[in-house]
Amino acid sequence: MGERDAREWRDQQRQAVRAHADADARRRAAEHAEAAELVAWFVAEATRRGLPTTRLLARGYDGRGRYRTGLTGWYVDRAETRAVDVAGRFHLLTVPGGLRARLFGVDPQPSPAPLVVGAGGRDGESIPLRTLLNRLLDDGPGATTTPAAPRG
């Protein structure tokens, strides 16, 4: 293989990697947009039904401490590490903790909502976000009239 052939091959490989990365980024953006639409629907429906909100607490990475946040909303999972706030933002409620966090609280930033919660986790347990949100609505007040979550 000559130097020119090697250069062409490297250029083709770079282009293929770039195209693959671009396609993956477009797929993730589409998933995040669909999940954001689902979260917005949930907030509107939960508000309409009067589903009670709660002050959201964050957990330390080590799982031992719980820290105040300025957020109000609904926990999405039983572990109370994921939540949707009343503004329709998805939050991962795990933080670095420590004395400062214990004294002053924490401010977890919103993150893109996943379509499948727990996907890629070590325990192998994953569940569609749509299912979790529908369960919250089914367990809340006014659960007898459950309109289905929008299909993406």
What does this structure look like?
- The protein contains 3 helices and 7 strands.
- The model has no long low-confidence stretch (mean pLDDT 88).
- Helix 1 runs parallel beside helix 3 (129-139).
- 42% of the residues lie in helices and 20% in strands.
- With 152 residues, it is of the alpha+beta class.
- A hairpin with a 5-residue loop joins strand 1 (54-60) and strand 2.
- It has a 5-stranded mixed β-sheet. It has a two-stranded antiparallel sheet with strand order 6-7.
List keywords for this structure.
3 helices, alpha+beta, 42% helix
**Helical percent range?**
40-55%
Strand order in the sheet with the most strands: 4-3-2-1-5
Terminal Cα separation, in Å? Answer: 49 Å
The H/E string reads HEEEEEHEEH
Q: Decide which structural class fits the backbone.
A: alpha+beta
- The gross shape turns out to be elongated
Averaging pLDDT over every residue, what do you get? 88
The radius of gyration computed from the alpha-carbon positions, rounded to a whole number of angstroms, is 21 Å
Largest sheet: 5 strands, mixed
Beta-strand percent range: 15-25%
Number of helices: 3
Quantity of strands, as a count: 7
Return residue spans where pLDDT drops below 50 for at least 5 consecutive residues: none
